[in-house]
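Query structure, 143 tokens:
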């Protein structure tokens, strides 16, 4: 009996319990998935204190002009968006008038600090600074 390559692939996937007709779906990530590390949040806290706290407050509470980065108002503003959306906002516009004074890695570390300050769980890996991957991480209410 002579098998074609396609037939062999179908038999192999069937033997492994895979369905070749169904594409694999990656597990969706959210802010509840442990998407930043404690080490990253610590680095982000140092950058936040130096570059952000003068406007957003020492406790991320905002000052009336600069919005709070924690609490119900923050969550209402960001739920349904992505971590990539937050990073892009920070990357292109913070600190106002001095956007290039803080590098992209420092800014993504600040995002990790913001997630920690909002009591989202930490994981084992740092957030990467590539916007495309960050756009796959949804902001969801804390579980």
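Result returned for the query:
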């Amino acid at each position: 009996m002579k098998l074609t390559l396609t037939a062999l692939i179908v038999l192999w996937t069937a033997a492994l319990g895979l369905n070749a007709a169904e594409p694999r779906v990656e597990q969706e990530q959210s802010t509840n998935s442990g998407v930043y590390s404690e080490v990253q949040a610590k680095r982000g806290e140092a950058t936040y204190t130096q570059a952000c706290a003068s406007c957003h407050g020492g406790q991320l509470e905002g000052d009336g002009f600069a919005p709070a980065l924690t609490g119900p108002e923050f969550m209402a503003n960001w739920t349904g968006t992505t971590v990539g959306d937050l990073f892009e906002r920070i990357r292109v516009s913070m600190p106002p008038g001095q956007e290039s004074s803080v590098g992209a890695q420092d800014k993504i570390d600040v995002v990790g600090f913001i997630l920690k300050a909002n009591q989202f769980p930490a994981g084992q890996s740092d957030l990467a600074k590539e916007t495309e991957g960050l756009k796959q991480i949804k902001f969801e209410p804390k579980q």
